[in-house]
């Protein structure tokens, strides 16, 4: 691992790195079911099935088989595709819209807000997410996430890990890639950012994973920093 990098801006992956998407979807699903005549649903399995369609749906856009659409659109299409698997095909359009907004109300990890608040004292904090602007803004309001700016897929019209997603963010911040640090719990995200010249920080988030999953539990690249929390990242960057 190299020395602590001198950077001016932090670009954050959001789903899994800053917020607990799996636990939040399961919690919100259980709350949604209360008072409704629905079949029993394993809401953690529901979250996993919904998320499993995330990368394949974006691949259709990345590889040019469909024009760019916001993640809210892809999430809704993916939701419609899994409802029958859980006995929920009778949900109305309004109820499906309500479920789709679960992604706008994901809980931050316990260290996220405090760690980001410390980092923001000295550094620019940018959401570098595949989530669309409205989704990320709603999530920030819900969870108290102190972004300076929301960047990412909708801003440049390209989903990570396309190079233009990372380079477009750096260009809009007016910073060279080497002055930007990509912060993520996912090795493929960091590898793509590093290929574009960004510095890299791996955050361990083992609780993101379903039982039995082993990917992204450990860093697989020579990242600039490896930490267990955003508080530790703030410590390492002198914030």
UniProtKB/TrEMBL annotation:
GO terms for molecular function: (S)-2-haloacid dehalogenase activity. Gene3D superfamilies: HAD superfamily/HAD-like, Putative phosphatase, domain 2. Its EC number is 3.8.1.2. It catalyses: an (S)-2-haloacid + H2O = a (2R)-2-hydroxycarboxylate + a halide anion + H(+). It is an enzyme of class 3 (hydrolase). The keyword Oxidoreductase does not apply. Keywords: Hydrolase. Belongs to the HAD-like hydrolase superfamily. S-2-haloalkanoic acid dehalogenase family. Catalyzes the hydrolytic dehalogenation of small (S)-2-haloalkanoic acids to yield the corresponding (R)-2-hydroxyalkanoic acids. This is (S)-2-haloacid dehalogenase. It comes from Tistlia consotensis USBA 355.
